Amino acid sequence: MAMKIRLARGGSKKRPHYAIVASDSRMPRDGRFLEKLGTYNPLLPKDSEERIKMDIERVQYWLGQGAQPTDRVARFLEAAGVKDKTERANLKKGEPGKAAKDRAEKRAAREAAAAEAANAPAATDETALDASESTSGTESP
């Protein structure tokens, strides 16, 4: 049986309250669980002691039995010092979507065209002045 230590949601609409539970991974999120290990109330301030409560001994027991914590619970365990901190690389999350990439390409093309246009008239003005001086110099004796 694949065990998970995860959050089970409770509370009313827009007022979440979570129970930290040990359950079979095949059970629904808010369904049957084997043991309640603690609570998590995200509405409380981050420095509040009441925000996250866990029975550390029971959590360590379930980890010893092979239970895998979910990402959020693993973060709680790392903060409590029960689990070693792991390196996370969420490369896909920070990458912009297709529409944002298209907008960036169009903006870059517009800026390149504007820079080119700004440089081009300055160069043509100088050549036009050189050309007018050379033609005016040959016309007047």
Automatic annotation (TrEMBL):
Region of interest called Disordered, as start-end residue ranges on this chain: 87-141
Low complexity composition bias: residue spans: 111-123
InterPro entries (alphabetical): Ribosomal_bS16, Ribosomal_bS16_dom_sf
Domain of life per record: Bacteria
UniProt feature, compositional bias: Polar residues: 132-141
Gene designation: rpsP
Entry keyword annotation includes GTP-binding: no
UniProtKB keywords: Ribonucleoprotein, Ribosomal protein
Record keyword Chloroplast present: no
Any one cellular-component term (Gene Ontology): small ribosomal subunit
Biased composition range(s): Basic and acidic residues: 87-110
GO molecular function list: structural constituent of ribosome
Family: Belongs to the bacterial ribosomal protein bS16 family.
The protein, known as: Small ribosomal subunit protein bS16
Residues spanning the membrane: none
GO biological process: translation
